[in-house]
């Protein structure tokens, strides 16, 4: 066995994440490693918290990145807020709602599901009916932007419903943060988690989270210890807390945090609302181009995620062959369908640094070429003309 | 609020980890991000598994990096092998043995502790007495290299004891992997976890783990689901398993894995046994230099970790002032004492890329200077002369 250094090619990442990582962020990852208790590193952590508060639109003190991917951020929210025996209403309109249920049951709590159609936003009336039937529910959990389908749910209205029925909220913002409007404080979200590798355009591996005062109070009032030592927010707070003694908990992923810091500095430079607008504008361009190719959207225009475009694979076009062609001939990655959508749908990401016109031009050109090879009739020129409009 | 890019200085890291990261590894972190299901990335994952098997001296199929720091690797071993109601014998001779107990109790299992003196290896006779008293114990857990004290325990003998009493073993190798002899298969270790940021000299954030066939069988025979979704090895195996369908579980920390791959390629180039010998030789040099400064070791020579040197702070020398001076004047980090050793002990790391003679020269020179400033009488020249021997 002799294994050499790994030299990856440069891909264009237009799948469901990771998205294209800006060269500034890659450069940040390679900066000299500091100790995780170094005063300069601790200062960087304070900036990171400020930047995350900006991105989440929150003043929540307990706002920080979990040292693991979005799935661990999900687990952090559930294991800290849910206790054995609790009842949690979980809205399921895709893969990630289902994963939330897994988290609930592994705590020894009960998940009451609100099953909604894939590709649709969570249905408010259905949720209210279930909350009405389960007055003892403690938490309402839902996915803001379903990465498996491309549907955006009305987080503001869902949080208002939760408050009406005296539930705390747990919100999955893995794909929404930085890509669409998201206002943690104004909407009254209690616990939220995201991922570094979607609209923040950082490398994968970190999960920003934020907890409201009500969530923190619930964590402090727990009857059972948090089942995870690694994800226990009481302990994590000892390391990340303001003015605290920076008690050692675990060794922070120093260089990965440099990358997240840089990605958030770039978000601040662009302006959060400008980033939302850029995603919307790029989506409009891509959508016009795809429709010109005869490729149609899974999700209705009113609840479509600009950053994740789920489209039906046209009849007679081979899913795997197209994706392999794009990768082999154009170094271009798009996403396959997940769960119920496997083999039927492509997921085309326009997240963060991927949401730019060069990528749209490449995608439309390459996709038209790949489909034409399979006898599908379409015109890249028409698509590009439509996209420019 | 306007926050700028973070530009860390270049430090020399001689604390308990993170250790100095080789420029080749920093460069690897900045390579272009691939999708986590990209065939080229999957190929890199297969190499990573092979390289980890080499580092652990194992043929265990279930050998891979957990996508989170060493504490999560610890939790992965415990939540997969321990079920509610189980009895686990935990050897405690420092901070990390205590943390193991926390993991056991949060599962709803019972931890029977073998309390040993800090700075000493785990006492075999004590362990046998406890195993004799608790014939229903399912697992023996211990720390191979206690990062909080610098003591090395006899993992081979402890595993033999465990087998005699029909226990599985969980071994903390966070600080030992790559720094001292470690033979997972020959010694009969069932579950082991390590960290990327110690003797592998990679950045922090990943935890290599390995499970024996007996451990895998125990995981498959569980009566209760694993309480953590993120750390459930049954699910993780679906993504990392050979010849499997590479089922999506969570998004792998792509660039961090490039770094780990590069660090293991470098370990393979040097040769594992050569790396152990380098750590031993550098330790001998440092130890001679420190003794010449009148700085004495906490741990007896026979069970000292070469890669983590715990030494008593000489009388009249201020702990914090010395560490601040080293950092401010020499960009040199050493570690403070942890737990019972806070304020009494320094921890000087010689891990991975930090274990080289330039670092020893810097440490001895800078430490002599810092202590002299406080009226302590010592000679850097004598220390350097002793170190060269």
TrEMBL record, chains A, B:
Q: Does the keyword NAD apply?
A: no
| Keywords for the protein's UniProt record, in alphabetical order | Aminotransferase, Pyridoxal phosphate, Transferase
Asked whether the UniProt record includes Transferase among its keywords, one would answer yes
**Residues of the Aminotransferase class V domain:** 40-337
Record SUPFAM superfamilies? PLP-dependent transferases
Q: Annotated Gene Ontology MF terms?
A: transaminase activity
Cofactor names: pyridoxal 5'-phosphate
| Pfam families reported in the protein's UniProt record | Aminotran_5
The record, for InterPro entries, names: Aminotrans_V_dom, Aminotrans_V_PyrdxlP_BS, PyrdxlP-dep_Trfase, PyrdxlP-dep_Trfase_major, PyrdxlP-dep_Trfase_small, SP_NH2Trfase/AEP_transaminase
Q: Looking at the record's lineage, which domain of life comes first?
A: Bacteria
Similarity comment: family membership: Belongs to the class-V pyridoxal-phosphate-dependent aminotransferase family.
PANTHER family noted in UniProt: ALANINE--GLYOXYLATE AMINOTRANSFERASE, AMINOTRANSFERASE CLASS V
Q: What is this protein called?
A: Alanine--glyoxylate aminotransferase family protein
